[in-house]
Design brief:
This protein is of the alpha/beta class. It is built from 30 helices and 23 strands. The strands form four sheets. The chain has an eight-stranded mixed β-sheet with strand order 13-12-11-10-9-8-17-18, covered by helices on one side. An eight-stranded mixed β-sheet has the order 14-15-16-20-21-22-19-23, with no helix packed on it. It has a five-stranded mixed beta barrel with strand order 1-2-3-5-4. β8 and β9 (686-694) form a beta hairpin. α11 (309-328) packs antiparallel against α12 and α22 (627-641) packs antiparallel against α23 (653-669). It starts with a helix and ends in a 6-residue tail after the last strand. The C terminus is likely disordered.
């Protein structure tokens, strides 16, 4: 009953959050006034205590048979006993009814708690984009630091108040003047009516506050690389903002659902739920930042005066975290990248501050399967609590032993451990693992103090429910599930392992063995237990890992064997010791941190070498997992999780068989329907599209393996127009290739028949002699940016085989380009790939003609890159659906938004052997492309007329396509990568159709 009610409570809260987030539920202020969150939370706790007490004192027990016969005879001889027995039966039924009512009340109350929390979040969220000027109060430490050299942006949770619409662009001096006026007004207790009289007449937003995520990114790294610009850049001050500081900024606010973090999601990370779980109301991009800072000692702002003592204490602790980060950040630019990342990981292991860890190090830890070691876990908190408790008991033993007359020794140790655990948990941000450990220490000590017969497993489960009641959005955090499930599995494994070791010790033969033999046996037993534990955790956490992250690293099974011991018994204790020494002697602490950083740097070198082995390059496991699959996994594991003999383990076969059939069906569903996936790249101008077309084995070309059931082509393009100034791409080839490899793996693609780069690259040719006007207009484009997509092809070819590579424009220097990259890269055994020009008339076709790919544009013989871009047409005998790839769940990829051109001519009547559909993948950065096509290329050759049932155009809103080209191509539907239509469609009668493009 205990487990059933708790599970139903969590399921009900998750269901309410999911339903409330997916559909519009009207908010009711009266409901929130009647059932506000603290009152409902206390009511739930009271109901739970009553339920536990009733269940604890109503435990049924079995009577022996002779007692049952004795009571039966007694009831026949004594009628009063019969009445007493009926009354007991009545009270037992009443007790069961009361338990059922309380359980239903807990479930309904939990659902209401989740609903009220959702409605409170809805009332405070930002609903529409707007540009404002506001007073920003820094809360906590930033998630990352602003660094132009590494192209790292500033991300910080903050509270904005005194909000006014931004009428005109503000300079730094304007914001500083506003700060001075604000200080004068507050310190003199004057009215705020004239505070912004020169900037805004709207004072309605002065009393509104939002909790936002500030974003500040380098706007143009190539232009800000000089020392002069770095010194004059006001964004550099962002790294020196302490928790609690206040200053004025001009911001561009955006709702969570439409923010760049939520829309640009190539890796599957659900940033919307992550931000909502942190109680963020919206995203604020920094436009201008002032230089004058208001500290909490300069003004008695309500944000400080009305805050609780706990919030003030939290602010002071965060200031200590910030100062420790600044200590690590000293002379940062003078150190090598390896030394920087070793120090960054050391800081993360001490305070949970990951702001200094770059993307490459995070990817390395993800590939190694040890990302969990970067988080502050229960091990860190427990180590520090034990160290401080031992030191405190030692002091009491030496100086104040009389204390033990009033307080037992274990209680002294317990109180010190609780205080240390909660303070350290606050110091590390009070994340779920640290908070869970602190509350577990408190609960277990309380159980021992009150002598309650409650198991550790029940305490852990009750704590999970309490944390969900306190904050329902914690159910959206991956750390919540992984933390509690891992501890449950450890407790379960520990019980089973203890039982087995006890049996082995009892049955072991007694004989005189040598010391060396005994030592080897003990070492072997320890190694075997560690491997079994790691294998147990890996297998049992695999389904939930795939559900939360969409992938799992197979390297984790090996690297965790030594990494967990190294971190848990060497790095973390030394790091915590250095942290304690820092309070007394920073010089001693720096010496210890230098040793820890050296160990971490060597570990990074070892992991890099291991993960670069070509024989073990396939390290990621991609399998689409949903809740139904997770439920089948749980049913399959249930006979092994329950006590042995409780139910037959043969009962695991039906759900296990169903699980295998479901996974196979999901994989087959990705390959049986012709589909073009629009893959997110993280850059609004760089597009990626994957074509998957099912074929029979006898229809495959000779270049592909015969066991494959589908053909896959990948198309890349850069849609930055040459005539307009746009933000440079922040993507790197390594990041883009890793993202694409992950996306292809989740779609069960392990080989590509072809890869087409539809945009030309100036870095691959040195044979240009004319068209100086075009080259001058693109002089600001760096060679690295132009080589992004070709370099991505080269790196992706190291991860999976690519049979053909088409490149728009000239590629004279491709061989030299590959060789130069191989020389500068660490792995020497890289695979080369030959390049083919993607130019007008080039064609690829299946053996039976069901699928063909041909280039419509691209004239590389002309000395002008403006006509090199390659637009591709895909002709298929089966309709091709176009889906927007859902990184979180590829099986739930949604159809792309289609704009139907009603002015286009109706499709012709059906003819024998006529292709069903044509899909045009457009790539043009200059209007000359379609001017050239109009002059040189008729729509169809007169001798071979080809018509299509449907012609769909897929491109970017920056396309230079004209209405004439659209009409000549008989395009009936248009789709864009950025969901904005090009200018040519404005002259056409168009209608938006968001229906599915399935046949």
């Amino acid at each position: 009953m205990y487990w059933l009610i708790g599970s139903l409570i969590i399921i009900a809260m998750m269901g309410v959050l999911a339903v409330a987030d997916s559909m519009a539920i009207p908010t009711s202020s009266s409901l929130m006034d009647i059932l506000n969150t603290p009152i409902l939370f206390l009511s739930l706790i009271i109901f739970a205590i009553i339920l536990i007490v009733i269940a604890q004192f109503n435990v049924p027990f079995a009577k022996p048979s002779h007692l049952s016969q004795h009571t039966a005879g007694l009831s026949l001889r004594n009628p009063s006993y019969n009445i007493s027995h009926k009354s007991k039966l009545f009270f037992r039924i009443l007790t069961h009814v009361l338990v059922a009512v309380l359980a239903i009340g807990l479930i309904i109350g939990s659902a209401l708690q989740a609903l009220i929390s959702h409605q409170q979040a809805e009332l405070t969220e930002i609903t529409e984009p707007m540009r404002v000027q506001a007073l920003v109060t820094i809360e906590g430490i930033s998630d990352s630091v602003y660094d132009v050299a590494t192209d790292s942006g500033y991300r910080q949770v903050a509270v904005i108040s005194d909000i006014s619409p931004l009428v005109s662009a503000l300079a730094v001096e304007d914001l500083d003047a506003m700060t001075s006026n604000f200080l004068i007004d507050e310190n003199n207790s004057l009215s705020n009516n004239n505070l912004y009289k020169n900037n805004s007449n709207n004072n309605n937003g002065k009393n509104v506050t939002y909790r936002v995520l500030l974003n500040g990114y380098p706007k143009n790294p190539s232009k800000q690389s000089s020392k002069k610009n770095l010194d004059n850049n006001p964004f550099d001050r962002l790294n020196y903002l302490q928790p609690g500081d206040q200053l004025f900024m001009s911001l561009a606010l955006a709702p969570l659902a439409t923010s760049e973090q939520a829309l640009s999601n190539p890796s599957g990370f659900d940033s919307y739920r992550w931000l909502r779980g942190r109680h963020i109301d919206g995203v604020a991009n920094i436009l201008t930042v002032g230089t004058s800072t208001i500290t909490n000692t300069e003004v008695s702002k309500p944000a400080f005066s009305s805050s609780s003592y706990l919030q003030r204490f939290q602010t002071y602790i965060n200031q200590g975290r910030w100062q420790l980060r600044q200590h690590f950040y000293q002379d940062w630019s003078t150190q090598t990248t390896a030394a920087q990342q070793a120090k960054a990981v050391t800081l993360s292991l001490l305070t949970g501050d990951r702001s200094l860890i770059n993307r490459d190090t995070k990817d390395l830890y993800q590939l190694a399967g040890i990302s969990h070691l970067l988080a502050i876990s229960g091990t860190h908190v427990l180590f520090l609590a034990i160290m401080l408790a031992g030191a405190a008991v030692l002091l009491f033993d030496r100086l104040w032993p009389k204390v033990y007359r009033y307080v037992p020794r274990w209680q002294v140790r317990w109180w010190v451990m609780i205080a240390a655990a909660f303070i350290y948990a606050l110091f590390t941000g009070f994340d779920v693992p640290a908070a869970r450990t602190a509350w577990m220490l408190f609960a277990i000590g309380l159980v021992r103090l009150t002598l309650l017969p409650v198991s550790t497993m029940r305490v852990l489960f009750a704590l999970a429910v309490l944390m969900a009641w306190l904050d329902p959005y914690v159910l959206w955090q991956a750390g919540y599930w992984l933390s509690f499930i891992a501890v449950v599995l450890l407790l379960k494994y520990d019980d089973a392992s203890y039982t087995q070791s006890a049996v082995v010790s009892e049955t072991a033969p007694a004989h005189n063995a040598s010391v060396v033999e005994t030592a080897f046996k003990h070492i072997w037993i320890i190694v075997k237990r560690v491997f079994k534990l790691q294998f147990w955790l890996f297998i049992t956490l695999l389904p939930i890992t795939l559900l939360l992250f969409g992938k799992a690293s197979l390297w984790g099974l090996v690297i965790n064997l030594f990494a967990i011991g190294l971190f848990g018994w060497v790095i973390v204790p030394l790091n915590l010791l250095a942290g304690l020494c820092y309070l007394l002697s920073p010089a001693i602490a720096d010496s210890i941190w230098l040793l820890v950083s050296a160990i971490v740097a060597k570990l990074h070198e070892l992991i890099t070498w291991l993960t670069s082995l070509p024989a073990l390059s396939e390290a990621w496991l991609y399998t689409p997992v949903n809740v139904a699959i997770l439920l089948m996994v749980l049913l399959s594991m249930l006979p092994w999780l329950l006590p042995q003999g409780f139910i037959s383990r043969w009962l695991a076969l039906p759900p296990l068989t169903l699980l295998m059939m479901t996974v196979y069906a999901n994989q087959q569903s990705l390959t049986t329907i012709p589909t073009l996936y629009i893959l997110p790249t993280g850059d609004p101008y760089i597009s990626a599209a994957l074509l998957q077309y099912p074929v029979a084995n006898n229809e495959q070309p000779s270049t592909t393996n015969t066991h494959k059931t589908n053909i896959s082509w990948l198309f890349l393009s850069d849609h930055r127009p040459n005539a307009a100034r746009t933000m440079p791409s922040n993507l790197t080839a390594n990041k883009l290739s890793m993202t694409l490899a992950q996306q292809l793996g989740s779609l069960s693609v392990d080989i590509l028949e072809g890869m087409v780069v539809q945009s030309s690259s100036a870095g691959l040719t040195d044979t240009l002699t004319t068209d100086k006007t075009y080259l001058a207009s693109n002089a600001s484009a760096s060679t690295n940016a132009s080589a992004l997509l070709p370099l991505t092809v080269f790196q992706l070819n190291q991860r999976l085989p690519i049979s053909q590579y088409w490149q728009a424009g000239r590629s004279d220097r491709w061989s030299t380009f590959q060789q130069a990259y191989k020389v500068t890269s660490q792995p020497k055994d890289m695979t080369n790939i030959s390049v083919q020009r993607c130019e007008q008339g080039k064609t690829w076709q299946l053996g039976n003609g069901d699928l063909s790919i041909q280039a419509l544009t691209g004239w590389s013989k002309i000395d002008s890159p403006s006509v090199w871009d390659c637009t591709v047409a895909i002709d298929a005998s089966l309709p091709i659906r176009v889906l927007k790839y859902n990184a979180a769940d590829p099986l739930k990829s949604i159809p792309a938004t289609v704009q139907t051109l009603t002015s286009s001519s109706q499709p012709p009547t059906h003819q024998a052997n006529m292709p069903q559909a044509r899909l045009i993948l457009n790539a043009d950065t200059h209007q000359r492309i379609w001017q050239m096509w109009t002059l040189l290329c008729p729509v169809e050759p007169p001798e071979q007329p080809r018509t299509f049932h449907n012609v769909t155009w897929l491109g970017h809103s920056t396309s230079q396509i004209t209405a004439e080209v659209i009409s000549r191509q008989t395009i009936t539907e248009m789709i864009t990568y950025d969901d904005k239509m090009p200018e040519a469609t404005l002259s056409l009668n168009a209608a938006v159709d968001t229906t599915n493009m399935t046949p």
